[in-house]
Write a structure and sequence with these properties.
Number of strands: 14
Radius of gyration: 23 Å
InterPro entries: Gln_synth/guanido_kin_cat_dom, Glu_cys_ligase, Glut_cys_ligase
Shape: globular
Pathway: Sulfur metabolism; glutathione biosynthesis; glutathione from L-cysteine and L-glutamate: step 1/2
Pfam families: Glu_cys_ligase
Keywords: ATP-binding, Glutathione biosynthesis, Ligase, Nucleotide-binding
EC number: 6.3.2.2
Number of helices: 17
Length: 531
Amino acid sequence: MSDLLKQRLQLIDSDANLPLLSQGLRGIERETLRVNDQGKLMITPHPVALGSALTHPLITTDYSESLLEFITPAEPDISIALNKLDLIHRYSYAHFGEQMLWNNSMPCDLPEEKDIPIAWYGTSHIGMIKHVYRRGLALRYGKSMQCIAGIHYNYSLSEDLWKLLKTEANDERSDRDYQSESYVALIRNFHRYSWLLMYLFGASPALSKDFLRGRQHNLESLSDDTLFLPYATSLRMSDLGYQNNVQDGLVPPYNSLLEYMRSLSLAVRKPHPPYEKLGIKKDGEWMQINANVLQIENEFYATIRPKRVIKTGERPVEALCARGVQYIEVRCMDVDPFEALGINLETSRFLDAFLLFCALDESASTNNTEGEENLSNFALTVKHGRAPNLMLQNQGTAISLQHWGEQIIEQIAPLAALLDKQAGGNEHQQSLQTQRSKLQNPDLTPSAKVLAAIRQEQGSFNQFALKQSRHFAEHFKANPPDAETSAYFAELTRSSLEQQAQMEQTQQGSFDEFIEDYRSRTSSQICCDGL
C-alpha cells in the first residue's frame, strides 16, 4: 500500500469523515437493441409509449432508432440505481408487445447497412444536430459497429470528501481545480489497471459472423454462423469493436484536464481529408457536422471519460472548462448476458471499490511509453485474457496477469473493508472474493461461461443470445410495474413528448445558422480561468 493511500484511509476512517463515503453518486446507462421474438432487429420507430428520445430523462436511444439507452438517476447507493433500472425495464416491457431486448453486447443478425435506422429526434435544431451527428458516424464507421451495446458506469465522490483531502494536503488550488485534477489522477490509474475489468467482467468472446460484413479478422470459426477467439474476454473492446485507427494517438496520455481538453478541441478542429471526400452536405442535406477528425468531443471512443452535466446546446468541453469535472464515466463494461439488467449488484460493488482505489491511491504522472504499455495490456486481455500464463507489462517488467491481478485485489481489500464499514454488511468484500476466484480459475469468468453456453447451443452465438433474451423477456413480462410506477412513467412520457413539441414550435432561425453557430464554438472556452 502506498503511503498516500494509507494516509487517506486513516483520514477517512473516523466517525466524522466516514459518512462522506456515502455521499458520492452512482448511475448506470444501459444500451440494448430492440429485436423481435426471432432475434431480428426491429427497424420500427422508437415506441411512442416510451416518450421522446430527445427529452425523456430515463429512456432515450443511442446510435440507432433500435438501440435503446436506459439511464438511471444518480444515486448515493448503486443498489438504488439498479432498482430504478429494473423499473425502467419492466415499464418498457409492458409496452413492447412482441418486441424484446437483445441481452448481449454484440449485435443480433443485422439487416443490410442501408436498412439499419439512424436515431431520429424530431425537427428541433437540437434534435436535428443529434441526427446529423449519427449520419456522420454512419459515413465514417458504418452502421453495424454503432449497434454494439455496453454498460456505462457513472461514478463520483462527495465534493466534501475532495475538500477534506485538499485541506489535508495543504493544496492551494481552488476546490474546483483540485477536484478536477484528482479525477484526472483517477483516470490515469484506471488506464493502468482497467485490463483487470476486462478479465473479470468481459462477456463478449464470440460474435455473429455476419457482423464483420466481410472485414478482415483473425478470429476462429466456432460454427457456421459464429466467430470467436478461444481465450478472448471482450471482442467488443478489441479492434473489431469500439476501436478506430483514425483516433489512434488522438488523446495522448494526459496529466491535466487542460491537456485532455486541448487534445479533444484540436481533434474537433483538425480536417481529415478522407472525411472531406465524404462531403458535409448532399443535395442540401447535412450528412455530418464537419469533416474533421471528430465531429464532436463525444465521438472519441474512450474507455473512461471525465464528465460534467451539460446544459442544452452546450459542448462537453465547454462544460468541463466552465465548471470542472463532476464525475467520471466508465465505458468499457460489457452487457452480462446472464443478468436481467446486464449488470448486477456484486459487480457494481467491486466497481465502487476499484474506482475508490484508483481515486485515493498514488497516481504518478504518465507519458507516451506508459500509455503504449497500458494499451498493450488492455488489448492482450480483451483478446487473450484467459490464456494460460498470459504475461503483461508493469512499468517495463513482465508479470503474469493472474499474479498482478491478485496484487491489485489485495491493494483494493482495505478500501472494500472501509466501504463495508460505512455501509454495514460485507458486500464489497464478498465481491472481492468472487473476483479472486476468477483469477484462480478462468472458467468462472463471464467470457468463459458465455463460450461454454454457446457450445451448448451448437456453437451458435445467435442461438445463445436469443435464448438469454427470451428468458429475460419472460421474466420482465411476468413482473409488470405496479399502478403507481406505471403512472409515473406515463407522466414522463407525456411531458417529454410535450417538451419536444414545444421545442419544435418555438425555435427560431434556420438549422444552417444553428449548426454553424455550434461549429464556431469548437474551442471557445479552452483557456478558462484556473486552467
